[in-house]
UniProtKB/TrEMBL annotation, chains A, B:
It comes from the Bacteria. The gene is kynU. This is Kynureninase. One of its GO terms (molecular function) is pyridoxal phosphate binding. One of its GO terms (biological process) is NAD+ biosynthetic process. Keywords: Hydrolase, Pyridine nucleotide biosynthesis, Pyridoxal phosphate. The modification N6-(pyridoxal phosphate)lysine is found at K221.
Amino acid sequence: MSELTLQAKELDAADALAPVRSRFLLDDVVYLDGNSLGALPAHVPDRIADVVRREWGELRIRSWEESGWWTAPERIGDRIAPLVGAAPGQVVVGDSTSVNVFKAVVAAARMAGEERTEILVDATTFPTDGYIAESAARLTGRTLRAVTPAEVPHALGPRTAAVLLNHVDYRTGRLHDLPSLTAAIHAAGALAVWDLCHSAGALPVGLDAHGVDLAVGCTYKYLNGGPGSPAFLYVRRELQPRFDSPLPGWNSHAEPFGMQPSYDPAPGAVRGRVGTPDILSMLSLEAALEVWEGVGIDAVRAKSLALTDFFLSCVAHYAGDRVESVTPTAHGERGSQVSLRCENAGDVMKRLIEAGVVGDFRPPDVLRFGFTPLYTSFAEAERAARVLGAVLG
Amino acid sequence: MSELTLQAKELDAADALAPVRSRFLLDDVVYLDGNSLGALPAHVPDRIADVVRREWGELRIRSWEESGWWTAPERIGDRIAPLVGAAPGQVVVGDSTSVNVFKAVVAAARMAGEERTEILVDATTFPTDGYIAESAARLTGRTLRAVTPAEVPHALGPRTAAVLLNHVDYRTGRLHDLPSLTAAIHAAGALAVWDLCHSAGALPVGLDAHGVDLAVGCTYKYLNGGPGSPAFLYVRRELQPRFDSPLPGWNSHAEPFGMQPSYDPAPGAVRGRVGTPDILSMLSLEAALEVWEGVGIDAVRAKSLALTDFFLSCVAHYAGDRVESVTPTAHGERGSQVSLRCENAGDVMKRLIEAGVVGDFRPPDVLRFGFTPLYTSFAEAERAARVLGAVLG
């Protein structure tokens, strides 16, 4: 047994989260792509079968009330809230991340007022945020400017309406400084909109504590909600009365079954709803969130950093200088993934997958390995690095 | 056996669609709410179990390609297309109806040009269409005017950008004249956007034949996709190159995995996509569409009219003048539901449901009974009317 194998064994033995792995259905593949699609929680199949056969098949229309379908978006939002540091009543689930980015950026621009004519967006963002922010700017008569997160403090000014930033960079895994960037944005009188796709469920976010204005996040990555499970929208409580949605669907009406011709928005997080929620995807997410029972986000963060530290050590040992990490080594700047740059990265990832190590490839040259502390072991981190070394030859 | 019971028996015996009922999981409840939530097709539970356990649980991220998840929105769109009279490549599935109304109305206004400053909306519409159209008008600098479908021809003019109409009125069940209204809208140089929520899967629509510009529709009513299954968007082929989406998410990019910072829209129906599709709800819909194997929409329409004719006769017999039908008697003006007005309608519906006849109540005084020819029998129509008569006392 090599020294690293032994070390992995010891780390796993000391890992308080190790038993949580049994809450998932896994096999002997090393699955390091939970930052793209989380693994299947073990109890979800039975829950979904019940939703389909009994709630839909037997109760049918009655389930909107009797099975709690109608209130699922805000109920599940409240289940996610503590994982992102939000008190109840501020998070609602529904629609895709892109649609929620649209709601958030348009609403933020409107709250900022007409005289603030510019929206800033993270130039290194996952593309959809940039495309949607451009549309939001166009429709609200603002201009959009792309700047790197580091440039944000200098780009802010009296014309800035809102800033859309990613908490963790999807490509490099860099964690941005949410507290200080939010403070800088507020100092300029603008609104901070955070995209938490790569941080929700992976590390503490502290939305309330840091006074974030609006946030959106993905639920099928570190929250394991299933393929395309609906995203979430956070609107800080004090801003909710001024949240003026560009998608004022009937689900956000104060009296949705009153069938009123005029729109009267509901109070609270419900105002972020739009149309009929996709119940199967939504209740899969709700069931998936049960794996968090008794698990604190701080413990998850501690294990995440230990896992990525250990993986980086193993990579240094097995792959040496044939790869270059683009993920920051400083803990305060690292999300829950490690991104490695290498030659022929697309081909390398194919061979890794064939060898039972699943990460993903992001053009032009990045291998991404996501670490989900709920189910990833140190032994897997070591094995992944070892296989990578072998694949690189 | 009463005369009506006997007649129902004969009608059922002669019904070529009667065997299709066995493709659904039903019980002895008379379910006349398929216009709100379609019943569960019998093979859907096994299909969803496979999607969850194998496609998500075992293949995980690989399923986006290997299980055809990525292309599901346009593949399922093409499966719906023939049911609404559309050639392939013009329908895409995803997001809620409300979100698709937003895409369609904004895109229509943009195609109409800046000099056309007014959007017309059906004043009798299901409320969400009006709320969303108001938002679309506000964001594109247009004014919104609510007119009844009958008033549309006179309200049209050189300033009209687009008209959003319902094919079937959700409350009364009235079928509007899509061909002639579309022709009138086109004669005024405006674009016709049709909401097919209460017609798709219930009657022939003829989108291509009548030159409809854009359309949206619901899949959890007569298409039985399951609670909150994603809606569909139709963009006529000739208009697709000019379809300028207000929700240009990464799924609508020409090269979605190129991760380009600039937006370059995909050609075709895919341009109507936004974010990651909700796979569980979407594949439930895909499976549900298999019940249409060998079933033509014309046969469905013929049975629908026979069912509602027969139900109206039975209601006249059992309930007499204690109810008043607000659904047109002329076939050309009737959708696939019967709406009856009566005193204390909310209470009457509660008692009907207790007695095993499920319809729904729409304020202030309407009982709705939806007829889904794929699984509703004439015997059920007779029984529903008989129970209604008894409940009314």
